[in-house]
UniProtKB/TrEMBL annotation:
Transmembrane segments: none annotated. This is ATP-dependent DNA ligase family profile domain-containing protein. It comes from the Eukaryota. It comes from Coniochaeta pulveracea. Residues 693-704, 806-818 have a biased composition (Polar residues).
Length: 1073
């Protein structure tokens, strides 16, 4: 019996009215359930076909149907169908005007209200479904099965639609228009609510057979069987009767996003498989051997049949399953899941996602490839299998994942570059080391430049039982961008916007003028900053705002705008592939600034540059101008660094990511099950967790050399005044003072304090270190005590030395290392500025000093700064050639402290250690203990050597122009240590070295790198020393960032993303010497 389309209009209109009402809203699911109950008699008839109704209620699920009708094209068809004149045509076109708040469906309803149709007969759901099927069958972008259903050689769209629009009511005409456009907004129907409302077993059926027509026939058979037997079908019977069917796509498991390591473990239990997430296209492969050579059928993630679009993959599938050979393990067929990728035989690796569009067509057409290179002979498609759902008519949906993996390994014959099984690790979530294991695996994935992990529990593919555990039979997707703060890119300018009527309906905001915003980067930032030239922007993405952001943008930003024709303020460049060729309707003359985050970088179709992938607005900046946004060159450099930088050869970056992931986990409250506990004491950090976490290792060397957390060095020190105030209160001890051995019964200091003399600080460090060791030996359940710490009788006391020996003793090194880690711990809501870690052969010998002055640790940071001030780096400067300086006040101040013959970094007696300091960060400036080597082409640039360097307190003694000086300095420093350096306060630390070059001059850069390599510089342990090389413009960027982010009284700064791909250090990275 036909089902009237007016009944569907009733449901949609009730949901729309409920959405628009401000008070007394009813839950949408209750409205849907009540509607299905009212029409239950029609749905339970034996001759009722569920497919047309489900296709009408959920048009977005019919991805196999493509109508090739957008709003403008449909409006022209409706105009001809209804025979509209000029006045009514103007009413129909009101949806295009920004701020009207109506879409095309509202305009159709208004026209039919003014001139109603002559009622002939009711329009049925079956008629609407048949007309849309005919229209879709005439479009070559529809699936092969839909195109094959076409009866005639051609279909007249206007004729098909005229029989509907000339008979519907005004209200039904509105919903019919939105049905054709596949957008019911602002009404959003939940598919599971629709399925359950129609029949309780329909959600389970569609999981196994994701096709409305097939599921409808299954339910019809069930209704007939129930009419004969009188018994309903239970879930257990359904699990036995229902099985996958070749040629019908199987639904996918539920997917969840992991927001942290702890969040992932909270959703898991038992043994889980940590599989590598690949950046490709999902494939569900059906093999039906009864079809002979054409036995392969491939479904995409959306459910569309893409067998012939992915024909280049067929050969890899045949060889992996040995189809056509006697050794083929299949009798009738199978259903497999895998990921389609592009492999390069030349580079012996999997290529990026953007390479797929050259090898895979879309319904026979290659889209977005105008700016791409031609497919090379050494590039080809490959398949990576990760699951099997059916083998020889035997369903594996109820089989555990571990067993399915064994079956899959027996089916697939792996070939390098053609077919393989996904790489995985097994973790037992019931063990205490689960968090540490998962953290280490995920950190390894990040350092290998992988996309992420997929965590799968050892459960059946689908759970048909009535008692389901939360998150059972589901997958957890873990990417670093899902973890807060790891996916920030930077600031982008909003150069234009356009209006979409259907999208505007979902905001429920009056007079909304814009829905989509065009963001871009400055292409001539240097010219704009220096000479005030007209800004030129390159549009990289189009983003949308959520309701809260949109309301804030309209209220506080509301920037001035002009039409694209009248715009003369800025110049914008929009590639053809941006927003599918759509252009902004307005141009913002004073572009506002959005803080953007993304998942990675990619090259959009028909573009030749890198842009953020899945860009999202993280924040709207109302206090910044377009001059502060990223330049286009900076974005491209950051993207190339992210995509093309090879994995590190050592474990420095790996250990840093493990520590960062540990800090990203939310803190547990008392009484919760903990996988790790962190306690910060006076000078030690005690962690109770099983290995192999780098921050809690049984080896002291691993604790002492814990690498800094990987940070985006674009972040800047935010606590300048606090640091300077704290360090100013610390008196400078005399250089000739010595330390007395501390008392054995010194009590435990409950918190970090700022003390008055260096002697007292040194004593407290030693005492606290012994007490922390005693606490580690004390049973875990024993309460802390304030009584003096007793030394074990069977252990000999640690001998103490004089001041000259303290910094070189193992105990003091432990104290300094632990104290440095405490001082460098990032606090929430505070920005920090760190030097990047330098890769080398051995991670234990690598560490660049990190700087942090969190308010909670000012005392600890001040102690570190004070000790460092008395333990300055010693370098001989007998052969150091100093540049001529002018007789300016700054220059006189620079040389007024001591004679130039003193060792570099050593203060003369009776004076402070550093007369010059950074004007932004003071003594906490990360460039304070760095020795620079300048390339000859930039050595005489006053802008660099006098202006930029002086702002950071870098004197001519801190940079050299020839690499040979480093060799002489190392020899002199060695002689100084042998000759009596131990009598001075502090240790003989080596200065960190950095090379600044003009990277545009490649030959000059290569020459200075060869000069450094010829020196064969060595560390104290005899290993090769690696020196980072940067472009000199890093000094400009650091200076700008420090000036922009310097701490102001009463200003609370949000934490800058320390892992942002837009890092200053990454942008200007050249290489290692």
């Amino acid at each position: 019996m036909p089902f009237r389309f007016a009944y569907v209009g009733d449901l949609l209109q009730k949901l729309d009215d409920n959405q628009q009402s401000r008070t007394g809203q009813t839950i949408n699911s209750n409205i849907v359930e009540k509607w299905f109950w009212e029409h239950r008699a029609s749905f339970t008839r034996e001759d009722f076909n569920a497919a047309p109704l489900l296709s009408t209620l959920l048009p977005e699920k019919r991805t196999d149907r493509v109508f090739f009708l957008q709003s403008k094209t449909l409006a022209r068809l409706i105009s001809r169908t209804l025979g509209l004149g000029i006045s009514r045509l103007q009413v129909l076109e009101q949806w295009e005007r920004p701020g009207t708040g109506v879409d095309l469906g509202d305009c159709v309803e208004r026209i039919l209200l003014d001139t109603p149709n002559v009622w002939l007969e009711d329009v049925t759901v079956e008629e609407v479904d048949r007309a849309l099927q005919n229209i879709a069958s005439n479009c070559h972008f529809s699936s092969p099965s839909v195109r094959a259903s076409r009866a005639n050689s051609s279909v007249d769209k206007e004729l098909e639609l005229s029989s509907l629009y000339q008979r519907v009511s005004p209200r039904d005409g509105k919903w019919l228009t939105r049905l054709i456009l596949k957008r019911y907004e602002p009404v959003v129907l939940d598919p599971n609510t629709i399925y359950r409302g129609f029949h309780p077993l329909l959600p389970t059926i569609l999981k196994v057979q994701e096709d409305f027509a097939v599921a409808g026939r299954f339910l019809q058979e069930h209704v007939r069987r129930k009419g004969v037997t009188g018994a309903d079908l239970s879930r257990d019977d359904l699990a036995l009767r229902l099985r996958p069917k070749l040629g019908v796509k199987v639904g996918r498991q539920p997917w969840h996003k992991g927001r942290s390591i702890r969040h992932c473990l909270d959703m898991s239990r038992g043994r889980i498989s940590c599989e590598e997430k690949l950046d490709g296209e999902y494939c569900q492969i059906h093999i039906d051997r009864s079809k002979g050579h054409n036995c392969i059928q491939i479904f995409s993630k959306s459910g569309k049949d893409s067998t012939w679009d992915r024909s280049k993959l067929h050969e890899a599938i045949r060889s992996s399953l040995r189809l056509g050979q006697r050794s083929c393990p299949l009798k009738t067929g199978c259903i497999l899941e895998g990921e389609l990728l592009v492999y390069s035989d030349k580079e012996n690796k999997i290529l990026g996602f953007e390479k797929i569009r050259k090898h895979v067509s879309r319904s026979g057409a290659f889209l977005g490839t105008e700016q791409d290179s031609q497919p090379h002979s050494y590039e080809h498609l490959m398949i990576v299998y990760f699951d099997v759902l059916m083998v020889d008519s035997e369903s594996l949906l109820g089989v555990r994942r571990s067993q399915r993996r064994k079956i899959l390994e027996g089916l697939i014959h792996c070939q390098e570059g053609r077919s393989q099984l996904v790489r995985r690790h097994i973790i037992d979530c019931d063990k205490r080391s689960a968090a540490s294991d998962l953290r280490r695996i995920f950190a390894g994935c990040i350092t290998d430049r992988g996309e992420g992990l997929v965590l799968k529990s050892d459960d059946p593919y689908f759970d048909f039982s009535t008692r389901r555990r939360p998150y059972g039979s589901s997958c957890i997707k873990l990417k670093k961008e899902y973890i807060g703060g790891f996916g920030d890119v930077g600031d982008f300018a909003v150069v234009g916007a356009r209006y979409d009527a259907a999208r505007a309906k979902s905001y429920v905001l009056p007079n909304l003028k814009w829905t989509h915003f065009y963001i871009g980067c400055l292409d001539n930032k240097d010219e704009v900053v220096r000479w005030g030239r007209q800004p030129v922007f390159v549009v990289t993405n189009v983003v949308e705002l959520n309701a809260t952001q949109m309301e804030s943008f309209i209220t506080h930003a509301n920037p001035p705008y002009q039409s694209e024709q009248d715009n003369e303020s800025i110049v914008i460049k929009i590639a053809p592939g941006i927003d599918m060729g759509k252009k902004p309707s307005v141009i913002f003359t004073d572009p506002p600034v959005f803080d953007i985050r993304c998942f990675s970088f990619h090259k959009e179709g028909n573009t030749d540059f890198w842009s953020p992938r899945f860009a999202m607005v993280n924040k709207i900046h109302f206090d910044r101008s377009y001059v502060d946004v990223l330049s286009f060159t900076e974005l491209q450099d950051a993207a190339r660094m992210e995509k093309e930088m090879p994995p590190p050869l050592d474990s420095q970056e790996l250990m840093g990511w493990i520590a960062a992931l540990e800090q990203a986990d939310p803190k547990r409250t008392t009484g919760e099950r903990t996988s790790q506990t962190t306690t910060i004491t006076t000078v030690s950090t005690v962690r109770t967790e099983l290995t192999p976490s780098p921050v809690q290792s049984s080896k002291a060397s691993q604790r002492d050399t814990m690498p800094p957390i990987p940070e985006s060095p674009l972040s800047v020190m935010r606590r300048v005044k606090m640091t300077q105030t704290t360090t100013a209160e610390l008196p400078t001890p005399p250089t000739s003072s010595s330390l007395e051995p501390p008392a054995e019964d010194a009590p435990l200091v409950p918190q970090v304090r700022v003390v008055e003399t260096l002697q007292k600080r040194k004593c407290e460090l030693q005492t606290a270190s012994r007490q922390s060791k005693a606490r580690k030996q004390r049973p875990r359940d024993s309460p802390p005590t304030s009584s003096p710490v007793q030394t074990s009788s069977n252990s000999s006391p640690t001998p103490r030395g004089a001041l000259a020996d303290i910094t070189s003793s193992s105990q003091s090194r432990d104290n300094a290392s632990v104290l440095s880690r405490v001082a460098n711990r990032r606090m929430a809501g505070i920005r920090s500025f760190r030097m990047p870690a330098i890769p080398a052969e051995n991670s234990s010998g690598l560490s660049l000093a990190s700087f942090c002055t969190a308010p909670e640790q000012c005392g600890c940071a001040a102690i570190t700064a004070a000790i460092d001030a008395q333990s300055s780096d010693i370098h001989a400067t007998a052969s150091l050639r100093l540049r001529e300086v002018d007789d300016t006040p700054r220059a006189r101040l620079r040389h007024s402290t001591s004679a130039l013959s003193l060792p570099m970094g050593t203060a003369p007696t009776g004076s402070t250690s550093h007369e010059l300091s950074c004007i932004f960060s003071g003594t906490a400036c990360p460039l304070r203990h760095v020795s620079f080597l300048l390339a000859p082409c930039i050595a005489n640039m006053p802008w660099l050597t006098e202006d930029l360097f002086s702002k950071h307190g870098i004197s001519p003694a801190d940079f050299i122009t020839t690499a040979e000086d480093w060799k002489c300095m190392a020899s002199s420093a060695s002689a100084t240590r042998i000759g009596g350096c131990e009598s001075t306060i502090g240790s003989c630390k080596r200065r960190k070295k950095i090379v600044l070059v003009e990277r545009r001059r490649k030959e000059a850069t290569a020459a200075i790198l060869q000069e450094i390599e010829a020196l064969q510089l060595r560390r104290r342990n005899g290993r090769r020393e690696y020196i980072p090389v940067y472009d000199w413009r890093i000094m400009e960027a650091l200076t700008n960032e420090e000036e922009r982010h310097k701490c102001l009284p009463g200003k609370v700064e949000t934490r800058f993303d320390i892992r942002s791909a837009a890092s200053v250090w990454k942008k200007y990275w050249v290489g290692l010497a």
